[in-house]
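Appendix B. Chain record.
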Amino acid sequence: MITMNPILQSTLSRKNLMALTGLFLCFFLVIHLLGNMQLLLPEDKAVVSFNNYSTLLSGNIFIKIVSYVLYFSLIAHAVDALFITLRNRKSVVKYAYDDRKKASKWYSRNMGILGTILLVFLVIHFKDFWYSYKFGSIPYDTNGNKDLYQIVVNAFHTGWYVVFYILSLLALGYHLLHGFKSAARSLGLYHPRYAAYVQKFGIVYSYAITIGFIIIPLYIYLKQFIQ
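Structure tokens predicted for this chain:
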């Protein structure tokens, strides 16, 4: 019986876990974007709708379970990515001539940098919104819900914060462009017959998520100057 090298087996297992957690995070981004799109409603409707939505997320037991899966996925995805990157650097074979620029996109070769940008963004994002909502002293709206809408609007009224947010989302977009196809390959879903469809879906998904999230802070920031 042929046995797999333990190191190779460990790497494949980690890649599979990273692929699964990555695809779950892709699914979460869709739900998160749909929820945040409520911020584009007229202000009187957005306040009520977004704050009710936030209260539902914080009080529903099913949502809490999903949130724990989300936290695990974020941590596991980041740790696995770091582990695989370090292992690949240690085991890389240097050739006399290695023109990888012709074989892969620049964002595919710099997933570590993009991932680091996203990690910094997530820390700031969780601190400004999730931590403030859970543990901070924030005001309540007229319906008795925590006014997360106002916290978000105040943040997106700051120019440098919007620029940082948009740059981070561009990093997310490039991360998704490579990550979606890579996850499909790791899980054996990248069959030659369907490869073109998987790649096109990944491109459409990456653009939709990136543009969708960028529109929100831009809209809120620019809206303050035309009211």
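Further analysis of this model is presented in Appendix C.
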